[in-house]
């Protein structure tokens, strides 16, 4: 029997996908969320009864039908970084990616071999769908200031399909002593978890002015981490 937390996390993910995609099929939801089509149909019926979505033939659509967001531009620098990362990824490995620009380039460059992708970013899921060999696990929606969804995302981590082999995480600042910092509004608990786990961690940061941001400590650089800077 499924717990109420599992059901809540799944409903949360369905609504997040619809918010960004406008429409998604029952089959795609079952694949992304790693459950049966029957379970998805039951979820959609429940969410429709709560007036949170509209059922339609073969799937569901958002009530406000927002169009999906455009991908962040893949700069030459991001592609160069992505190429360096992809050459080190073994086929069949499980990847956690929390970096939109570099992450989009990494997913787009993956060869047609089996990979497992875990991410919060709808943009990466859209790119990953083009490669039929990538199994996708959607880890809830992105957070914004004031959201209280970290506990839901941390609960979902317990049900990941397999251990993470490689983590690609975008952070906000690395000080001179190698301490890694991130924005306190951008799911720091989730970033911290994946910066600790995994066979190797790739840390991407930008040369931005972070003095006005509320930063929290995410971890420290060590021999398992490689760092890349986006100017």
TrEMBL record:
Domain HTH deoR-type: from-to ranges: 7-62
GO molecular function list: DNA binding; DNA-binding transcription factor activity
Superkingdom per UniProt: Bacteria
PROSITE patterns the record matches: HTH_DEOR_1, HTH_DEOR_2
UniProt feature coiled coil, ranges: none
UniProt keyword list: DNA-binding, Transcription, Transcription regulation
One Pfam family in the UniProt entry: HTH_DeoR
InterPro entries for the chain: Carb_Metab_HTH_regulators (IPR050313), DeoR_HTH (IPR001034), Tscrpt_reg_HTH_DeoR_CS (IPR018356), WH-like_DNA-bd_sf (IPR036388), WH_DNA-bd_sf (IPR036390)
Entry protein name: DeoR/GlpR family transcriptional regulator of sugar metabolism
